[in-house]
Amino acid sequence: MQLTKAEEQIMQILWTMDEATVQDILKGFSDNKPARTTIATVLNILENKNFVDHRSEGRLNIYRAIVSKEAYSKKQLFGFVKDYFNGSFSSMVSFFAKESNLSIEQMDEMLEETRKALDKENKEKI
């Protein structure tokens, strides 16, 4: 499920905290702070979308993310690759390598980092 810009901003802040009140989230904005009521409304929408839940302590609602940043990022990335690169990660990497003017050395470094990460992941599965 796609988040709006406002929803994503709040999730980005919430992902840095275990739990947060509306006031805590408001403090996470650096510029152009939205109104408390706006944050509360967006949190309600996120709760309806099953991205967050809350518990009440007196009059305070304390929110927590129930969708991890990693899970959301992965879903968004796979959707992006499917929509813009016909599901081909190779095409995406090739496109970004060309657009970023990466040198052969930089691409070799990226490939080596990827190999190490995959080796580590495979060893953890054993």
Q: Which key terms come to mind for this protein?
A:
mainly alpha, 2 strands, 2 domains, 6 helices, single chain, Arc Repressor Mutant, subunit A, 10% strand, 126 residues, two-stranded antiparallel sheet
Please describe what this structure looks like.
- The protein has 126 residues and is mostly helical.
- The protein folds into 2 domains: 5-65, Arc Repressor Mutant, subunit A; 88-126, no CATH class.
- 63% of the residues lie in helices and 10% in strands.
- The chain contains 6 helices and 2 strands, in the order αααββααα.
- A two-stranded antiparallel sheet has the order 1-2.
- Strand 1 (52-57) and strand 2 (60-65) form a beta hairpin.
- The two termini are 33 Å apart.
Q: In angstroms, what separates the terminal alpha carbons?
A: 33 Å
How many domains? The number is: 2
Strand composition percent: 5-15%
What is the gyration radius calculated from CA atoms? Answer: 19 Å
Would you list the SSEs in sequence order as H and E? HHHEEHHH
Q: State the oligomer.
A: single chain
Q: What secondary-structure arrangement, pairings included, does this model have?
A:
Blueprint: H1 5-15, H2 22-27, H3 36-48, E1 52-57, E2 60-65, H4 69-85, H5 89-99, H6 104-125
Antiparallel strand pairs: 1-2
Compact overview of the structure:
The protein is mainly alpha-helical. The protein has helices at residues 5-15, 22-27, 36-48, 69-85, 89-99, 104-125, and strands at residues 52-57, 60-65.
